[in-house]
Design brief:
The protein is mainly beta. The chain has helices at about 75-80, 85-90, and strands at about 15, 25, 40-50, 60-65, 70-75, 95-105, 110-115. The chain has a five-stranded mixed beta barrel. It is globular, with a radius of gyration of 13 Å. The two termini are about 15 Å apart.
Length: about 130
């Protein structure tokens, strides 16, 4: 499954669970196929986390609640720019809000997390992701 992530692109911004509630924030079980190629903001508990998955760098997470899960990919360039304190918020059991572009990779829905200006986002099918 993680190897399927090698065919995606970068994007996203993060907020700890203490951030102000947002009417546009959804839960992992609310993410669906109709949202592919759109920016989504998802809040959930980290149920699985692995740094440098399969040696490609970055971070891979599963964000869930009692009803569903969604995968999250943090690109190597962004992950490497984080300080230790920023990386610490991505531990299993912690609740985070992530915002990024939703992709379908195989049968999985993946939020690709990176730094971007939503006014300047374009999605292309031949984008490169590690």
């Amino acid at each position: 499954m993680i190897s399927k992530l090698i065919s995606i692109m970068v994007l996203l911004a993060v907020c700890l669970s203490g951030c102000a509630p947002d009417a546009n924030t959804i839960t992992p079980d609310q993410v669906d196929m109709s949202m592919i190629d759109q920016i989504v903001k998802v809040k959930g508990k980290i149920t699985y986390a692995v740094e440098n998955p399969m040696g490609v760098g970055g971070m891979y997470l599963k964000l869930g609640n009692s009803k569903g899960e969604v995968d999250v990919r943090i690109q190597p360039e962004l992950w490497d720019s984080y300080q230790a304190g920023e990386k610490a918020i991505y531990g299993e059991g912690k609740t985070v809000t992530v915002e990024g572009i939703l992709f379908k990779v195989g049968t999985d829905l993946v939020v690709v997390h990176g730094k971007y200006n939503s006014a300047n986002v374009s999605v292309t099918s031949n984008s490169s992701i590690r």
